[in-house]
Amino acid sequence: MSVLVNKNSKIIVQGFTGSEGTFHAEQMIEYGTNIVGGVTPGKGGQEHLGKPVFNTVEEAVQEVGADTTIIFVPPAFAADAIMEAASAGIKVIITITEGIPVADMVKAYNYIQNKDCRLVGPNCPGVITPDEAKVGIMPGFVFKKGNVGVVSKSGTLTYEAADQVVRQGLGITTAIGIGGDPIIGTTTKEAVELLINDPETSCVVMIGEIGGQLEADAAKWYKESGSKKPIVGFIAGETAPAGRTMGHAGAIVGGSDDTAQAKKRIMRECGIHVVDSPAEIGKKVKEVVG
Amino acid sequence: MNLHEYQGKEILASFGVRVQRGIVAHNAKEAVDAAKQLTQETGTSWHVIKAQIHAGGRGKGGGVKLAKNLQEVESIAGSIIGMNLITPQTSATGKKVHQVLVAEDVYYPGDSEPNEFYMSVLLNRSTGRNMIMYSTEGGMDIEQVAEETPHLIFTEEIDPSTGLLPFQARKVAFNLGLSGAAFKEMTRFVSALYKAYVESDANLFEINPVLKTSDDKVMAVDAKVSIDDNALFRRKQYAEMRDLREESPIEVEARAVGLNYVDLDGNVGCMVNGAGLAMATMDLIKMAGGEPANFLDVGGTADAKRVEEAFRIILKDPAVKAILINIFGGIVRCDRVAQGVVDAYKNMGDAIKVPIIVRLQGTNAELAKEIIDNSGLAVHSAVQFQEAADKVKEVLA
């Protein structure tokens, strides 16, 4: 088992023929991901990287049965790409694009609420189920197969955590990069819930950062769920000053309850194994899974 | 991107939001001219002189004063312009004031008492919708109101598919206890304010106070406006309002070369790929006994040119006693980054006088370590995150 993506996912790439889309599509295909085609408006009918190009997502759904998409469309047009995918019946919409205007995401987020789909991101590294599907921009070799699920707002910090877990002789079921923007489709709580409910996952690593309430919400849900699966948590940004945006548009301390300290306190109260040092994530996982 | 009060008010006024009128002045003479012009246009006899800096609490620091005649306008403007204004939101050294807003007096006596309210428009991150937050307790620190009298703060969330509806604007005006002409004014004010927020791609409007005047007008007396950086590409007229004097010169320079840099107070500089890992690295520096001197995300391409640019930016801060480079190479190969570090180091010659710790992990990490170790440079290399922390401790000791 795994969550969100697996070897049977039929994946298309939106922004397929652009430089980012091309580069990462190649990497995904090389990994063995089931890429069934791509979408670039105006280039329908062509072939790219040996896969068909479609003008619209709807065509891709009809012609090749696409159910999952990864979006590399530039920021100004990315929200539209998300809504197009949702409208065409795509079930999992993974958005890599960084820098989408918040007002566009307010619109897109609201639009997809009544559609049968799940948005992951934007501004995220994607989702990987090792040995099955890499639907993202992460280095595939870091993620060895195993039983630890990873949820993270950050790209390289996800790779760091996965690497530490693998160095302990363990592996990953699915790693979900949820993204660092103020509005994201899949929250920490939703991603943690998916992994807690996955029978193959025996432990979850939850990596957050300053700003917003997502980690606190996830921690409270975990406590209420009564789950016995251990969660190891880390929050980046203990040393970040208040009121400054730290790289990720959503990483900004707005009040007293979204600092790293406050989040870690809530997580500990809810039974999460919180590490203060980012160098100890792997060690702590090993300790709790025995 | 944060704006000055006068710029925020310009934007509000362009969408039909009533604002306290004012004119910007850069010296005492301009202030007197501005005051004369305002008297002609508005009939005001008194003027408020307001320092224009990017920080709140200006009144508490002596940056907002009432002038009752032109001599006072001249002397007050003269004393505020050029001062280092220290407020609860600035650093201990304060911020230099380059300009003041000479504004009309709007607290004149009349048929009813003037009344101050609080109003802001912002994103509710948990619902993905914009909301209007407002309170009867205007002119005060809203955090304090939230703590002491939370029942006096109201919120109205807006459905993006319909926009702010008339009944919502009425609800705001009712909750603020208004009636008659002032009630109508407030509903217009709220509607115009929300329209301005959406159409300017703002990510924060904070109007404190919103004033109901003694003759029942409703207007913004102050305006804290921030525009979404990601939307500046389609809001060029606002992008031009950026005042670089309000930002750290190093941050301005870093942005010009495409580096995401935030200046901090510590002694260990860092250069990292990815925002989350960069924050985690800062935290690790602190655990190792240092204090981070900056946040710096070099992004996806850490080649020699970029590494060199990053070095130059970090070294501009004289407090830096050591530099930690932490790169997790995924798509970027670590050996390339290592070569970039070596080349940058050689190019910069004697400019680098502090110890450097390089931690490269991921694709070709071992090869990268070899390149660093064999370079003959005074660079400490590490592969594991913990090793990097230990090295930081070592060089600071």
UniProtKB/TrEMBL annotation, chain A:
Pathway: Carbohydrate metabolism; tricarboxylic acid cycle; succinate from succinyl-CoA (ligase route): step 1/1
Regions crossing the membrane: none
Catalytic reaction annotation: GTP + succinate + CoA = succinyl-CoA + GDP + phosphate; succinate + ATP + CoA = succinyl-CoA + ADP + phosphate
Subunit and interaction comment: Heterotetramer of two alpha and two beta subunits.
Residues the record lists as binding CoA: T17, G18, S19, E20, K43, I96, T97, E98
EC number: 6.2.1.5
Descriptive protein name: Succinate--CoA ligase [ADP-forming] subunit alpha
Family matches, as SUPFAM superfamilies: NAD(P)-binding Rossmann-fold domains, Succinyl-CoA synthetase domains
Domain CoA-binding intervals: 4-100
A Pfam family assignment: CoA_binding
Similarity comment: family membership: Belongs to the succinate/malate CoA ligase alpha subunit family.
GO molecular function: nucleotide binding; succinate-CoA ligase (ADP-forming) activity; succinate-CoA ligase (GDP-forming) activity
Domain of life: Bacteria
Active site per the UniProt annotation: H248 (tele-phosphohistidine intermediate)
Function: Succinyl-CoA synthetase functions in the citric acid cycle (TCA), coupling the hydrolysis of succinyl-CoA to the synthesis of either ATP or GTP and thus represents the only step of substrate-level phosphorylation in the TCA. The alpha subunit of the enzyme binds the substrates coenzyme A and phosphate, while succinate binding and nucleotide specificity is provided by the beta subunit.
GO cellular component: succinate-CoA ligase complex (ADP-forming)
UniProt binding sites for substrate: Y159
Keywords in alphabetical order: Ligase, Nucleotide-binding, Tricarboxylic acid cycle
From TrEMBL, chain B:
EC code: 6.2.1.5
Top-rank EC class of the record's enzyme: ligase
Oligomeric form and interacting partners: Heterotetramer of two alpha and two beta subunits.
Residues binding Mg(2+), per UniProt: N208, D222
One Pfam family in the UniProt entry: Ligase_CoA
Domain ATP-grasp fold succinyl-CoA synthetase-type: 2-210
Any one GO cellular component localisation term in the record: succinate-CoA ligase complex
Residues at which ATP binds: K50, G57, R58, G59, V106, E116
Organism: Poritiphilus flavus
Cofactor(s) it depends on: Mg(2+)
GO BP term (any one): tricarboxylic acid cycle
Gene3D superfamilies the record matches: ATP-grasp fold, A domain, ATP-grasp fold, B domain, Succinyl-CoA synthetase domains
GO molecular function: ATP binding; magnesium ion binding; succinate-CoA ligase (ADP-forming) activity
Catalytic reaction list: succinate + ATP + CoA = succinyl-CoA + ADP + phosphate; GTP + succinate + CoA = succinyl-CoA + GDP + phosphate
Keywords for the protein's UniProt record, in alphabetical order: ATP-binding, Ligase, Magnesium, Metal-binding, Nucleotide-binding, Tricarboxylic acid cycle
Known pathway: Carbohydrate metabolism; tricarboxylic acid cycle; succinate from succinyl-CoA (ligase route): step 1/1
Gene name in the database record: sucC
Name this polypeptide is given: Succinate--CoA ligase [ADP-forming] subunit beta
Domain ATP-citrate synthase/succinyl-CoA ligase C-terminal as annotated: residue spans: 271-392
InterPro entries: ATP-grasp_succ-CoA_synth-type, ATP_grasp_subdomain_1, Succ-CoA_synthase_bsu_CS, SUCC_ACL_C, Succ_CoA_ligase-like_bsu, Succinyl-CoA_synth-like
Binding site for substrate: N273, G330, I331, V332
Cofactor note: Binds 1 Mg(2+) ion per subunit.
Family listed: Belongs to the succinate/malate CoA ligase beta subunit family.
Domain of life of the source: Bacteria
Function in brief: Succinyl-CoA synthetase functions in the citric acid cycle (TCA), coupling the hydrolysis of succinyl-CoA to the synthesis of either ATP or GTP and thus represents the only step of substrate-level phosphorylation in the TCA. The beta subunit provides nucleotide specificity of the enzyme and binds the substrate succinate, while the binding sites for coenzyme A and phosphate are found in the alpha subunit.
